[in-house]
Task: structure prediction
Amino acid sequence: SDGLDALLDGQLAYYRARAPEYDEVYAERGFRHLTDLVERLPVSGDVLELACGTGQWTVRLAQRATHVTAVDGAPEMLDIARRRVEAAGLVATFEQADLFAWQPRRRYDTVFFAFWLSHVPPQRFAAFWATVARAVRPGGRVVFVDTDAAERDTERVVPGDRATVLRTLKDGSEHEIVKLFHDAGGLAAELGKLGWTAQVDPADGGFIRGVARLTDR
Ligand code: SAM
Result:
């Protein structure tokens, strides 16, 4: 391969190492009320959350859903998420899996992911959405939140066509991870080509929110 697998392994390793410091971003100003967004998104029924991280969104989803199944590749993230959901007196099912290999065993009313799509490389974009399609019940929805294109200015973009950025952890270690700077209109068009009817809109604070349904269902 062109090193993509190694890049994706490195990306997961970065998040595993970042897990203990990940929540700090949610304590910052711009992120503090971000998960309130769930209240304005069409999340309902049996929910699947992909790349749940430390469970910041899982808690909000669990308050609204009949049930939440949350998947992430990092055991360190899942441990924190599990504790957060439990501390809130809520219930969710957690599963550790590599989302570039994982396949759903059943279908859900809502498939949700926050800050995950921008870490899916262009070469895996279509395959990822095909996997998502197999996880959605007829009439079901995909709901996502991510950073917008302006995020580029805040990242150390690696020159070249790999669509990667450099991130540094508190221990000084440097990591190259995938980061796409999707804009609302371009993303909706791309999803249209893959068979989705998608509405992607800017959300307050430099974020985008998307809702997608399979066009032929
Ligand atoms: N959704 C959470 C949020 O919004 O706070 C976490 C988002 S974080 C930017 C990306 C998440 O993707 C991390 O929790 C990381 O462990 C997970 N991840 C990275 N690579 C993965 C992979 N190959 N399979 C599954 N999860 C992965």
